[in-house]
Amino acid sequence: MNFVSPSTILVVRSLAICAALVVSTVLGTVAKADQKGDPVADPQAVVAVGNARFTVLTPQMIRMEWSADGKFEDHASLVFINRKLPVPKFTRAKEKRGWETIKTEKLALRYKPSKAEFTAQNLSVSFDLNGKQVVWKPGIKDSGNLLGTTRTLDGVEGATSLEPGLVSRDGWVVVDDSERSLFDNSDWPWVLQRPAGKRQDWYFFGYGHDYKQALGDYSKVAGKIPLPPRFAFGTWWSRYWAYSDQEFEELVNDFHANNVPLDVLVIDMDWHITFDPRWWKEQKDQAGERLGWTGYTWNRTLFPDPPAFLKWVHEQGLKTTLNMHPASGVQPHEEAYPEMARAMGIDPATKKYVPFDITDKKFAENYLKYLHRPLEKDGVDFFWLDWQQEHKTKIPGLNPTWWLNYVHFTDKERQGERPLLFHRWGGLGNHRYQIGFSGDTVSVWKSLAFQPYFTATAANVGYAYWSHDIGGHMPGSVSPELYTRWIQFGMFSPILRTHTTKNPEAERRIWAYPPQYAKVMRDAFVQRYALLPYIYSQARETYDSGVAFFRPLYYDYPEAPEAYEQKDEYIFGDNMIVAPVTSEMSVDSQLATQSVWLPPGEWVEWSTGARLKGPAKLDRTFALSEIPVYVKAGSIVPMQPRMEHSDEKPVDPLILTVFPGGSGETRVYADAGNTRGYEQKEFTWTHVQQTSDASGVKLTVSPVEGAYPGMIEERAYEFRLFGVYPPKRVNVNGTELTFVPEGQDRPGWRYDGKTTTVVITTPKYPVSEEVALRADLQGTQAQVALLDGLPGKITRLRTAMDIMNHTWRQGWSPDSLIAAFQTGDRMSYYPDQAIAAAEDLQSNWSAMVTDVKALEKDKVDPKAIGLALAHLGVETQVKAAGAK
Question: How many helices (H) does the chain have, and how many strands (E)?
Fold first, then answer.
């Protein structure tokens, strides 16, 4: 298998150098950047045999080199930047007939020295896979490769093909690095062509089905997956549209007015001079590209005072990015043209454009100095490299997308900042640059259906942060249902960014949709922000482990066939499985059916409260507001209070949601959010553990470990015990808390009957102190069983009631249906009667269904009755209008 894709190298510096870099940036210079890691392996890990050299990197990974001239490569390649790992235990021996063997704990390599290149006749590697020996030889096809990702989804309607990945059901993968470019050893490591000559440079991955270990070890030799700034996990607004600064201000105010959180304002290409492009005129610039597609000069008609506008954006707590298409170089009309031309040895008087050549270090340095740093000074936070043009550079095999990513990302590191780059996938090794822009998909259901699989599979090359055009790109308009489901997928994606093409009919403002859809979408945005502590903690785990938090099921369940078959289902952090709805609701029932596979263990369906056991493959139905999210029983999910943007205020109280069905633990991560301190141990972890049984819940928050500048010294906690009855008593750190009605801002507990959740609010405690909770619960086993799926029932009761109320003049919801719907409120108002209310709902359910059916005798629309009964779980033969 031959990976043609390139990669990059990371840089590191101390905090002192970071401070110096800030000063040097002001002066227009940059400081030295050093490689992370050492490309030269420990000599003890190297076995040289004639024209071959083998480097034992891990017990499961061996570098295999052959060179016609006997010379081997110790420069970092664009993918493999660190070969100096702890030397694994291995043995070397000679067999009869000249065969050499290298044996690690996991692999046995056999090689017969030869001046000829590696072939099936002189090289093999064997290992054990589930009790069976697997033998690999050059030329064997990797038929079980689980694939990786691809550069773009531009124009894709549904699915597309993907590049090979680093894991395979066959148990092995070989990465061919023979033709890939190298890095030199300069202050800012730069691309270097491999020496001429016949050679092979392969990396053998023999990890069996231990996919997590394979990706973790890959990050050791190819670089870590950087942690994006915390704000990147909030909402991004993006639309291809020629916005003025006033229109942007109105848009942001609308976000606030409609209580929709927002963090990133994406400004598409009309921020710069575009010469009013008309695609049909095919006007070209000196580079032969579309006139106005590339640009670096603010459009002063739309943005009369860019720094003032960007200052206002920052005052709203937002970050900005600009869309860039650098293929045309620098044209004579650009404000920066005279300086850039002189810097590149061109007389500005000639009006000859400066050609784009990102592999020319001089060009790259001036490109950053004269074109990008002034924009950063104006207030631009990061750049969107919407590169779409050529696929070649002057360096054979080096993709311009890949090298642009390297140049921009490492430039931010050289300035001492935590880098953020929004760009297209450039190939293997681009896991070192976040965040990916997947491109211009077609706005149809099958495009949405492909994206969960596409995003999860990218983990197989360490690419953890795909950002999709939520709602699709073209032609732009989408149905309310499709947009709602796309947003729900985006809520449980690495990045939540809405987008569309320049089409007046394309609407991405959620409040512009009918109220029933707008509410569901707003709830998804709000819930996304509530989950930021969970998501950010999982992103840190991604950095530490090399395993993406959004990943395929087979990482955790490699021997289960269903883990490979359920391609639209994925793991979202260590505690959740998500199977987003990607098909339309039935016209008959207004419910969507989703096939779900649950791994072994107990799971809680978050939206309904249903408690399910795996392994099992189920067909579940979901109303518009319901998302198929399954949380491991006993999990603790860290959350935060409602915010307009991600860092509006400290996470105080820290919300800890405990799911029923067992014991569990978690760690909550925090850092400064937008600095490189996370690489230098400037962060904290808070360990939380809970045990539960029929009598109650014990939960302990340990003292915080670590520190970072600006961390809070004390905070309150909000413990949410999901899927239980109101407690008999609650005790926190030896103090008993009493019932406090909702709306009163003081420590105590209340009960949310609609979600069957006990909400416990504590006083503030120093983060250096332990906080211990004990909640004594009530209810027999039979009574507790009534809570199984109760929140889902209440949601469906509300829908059924709304359906029947819209039959006015023919009928109305019967009192029994209204009373059933009110169960949740009664449980909230009168927690001491919660068990009785749940029992009444159970005992009166059949009579209520009979009352709904009886409305047909009053000539109520049978289609409406059929829809209502479907939400009450009653099958009916009644067809709704428009059913086929």
Answer: 19, 42
3 state DSSP class of 362 = helix
At residue 69, the pLDDT reads 94
Strands 654-658 and 717-722: parallel
* Cis preceding linkage at 558, omega within 30: no
Q: Cα–Cα distance between 191 and 396 in angstroms, integer?
A: 11
Q: Is 492 exposed, middle or buried (0-12, 13-18, 19+ CB in 10 A)?
A: buried
Helix (H, G, I), strand (E, B) or coil at 877: coil
Burial 663-694 (b: 16+ CB within 10 A, else e): bbebbbbbbbbbbbbbbeebbbebebebebee
Structure tokens at 765: 């405690």
- Rounded to an integer, what distance in angstroms lies between the CA atom of residue 228 and that of residue 429? 17
Q: Is 8 in contact with 405 (CB distance < 8 Å)? A: yes
Burial 852-862 (b: 16+ CB within 10 A, else e): beebeeeebbe
pTM of the model: 0.94
Farthest CA pair distance, the chain: 96
| Pairwise CA distance, residues 356 & 373, whole Å | 17
By C-alpha distance, which of 612, 620, 524, 540 is closest to 574?
540
**pLDDT by 10-residue block (mean), the chain, 884 residues:** 34 32 34 67 97 98 97 97 98 92 98 95 98 98 98 95 98 97 96 95 98 98 98 98 98 98 98 83 90 96 98 98 96 98 98 97 98 98 87 91 97 96 96 96 98 98 98 96 98 98 96 97 98 98 98 98 97 98 94 97 98 97 97 98 97 98 96 97 98 93 98 98 97 97 92 98 98 97 96 96 89 94 97 97 96 89 92 63 34
Residues in the chain: 884
DSSP 8-state secondary structure symbol assigned to residue 858: G
Q: Cβ–Cβ contacts within 10 Å for residue 133, how many?
A: 9
- What is the C-alpha separation between 87 and 90, in angstroms, rounded? 9
Backbone angles phi, psi at 848, to 5 degrees: -65, -45
- Position 8 scores a pLDDT of 31
357 CB-contact burial (10 Å; exposed 0-12 / middle 13-18 / buried 19+)? middle
> ∠ CA(26), CA(32), CA(34), 5° rounding?
140
Measured CA to CA, the distance from residue 560 to residue 545 in angstroms comes to 23
- E strand residue ranges, 553-682: 570-572, 576-578, 592-605, 610-622, 629-632, 636-639, 654-658, 664-670
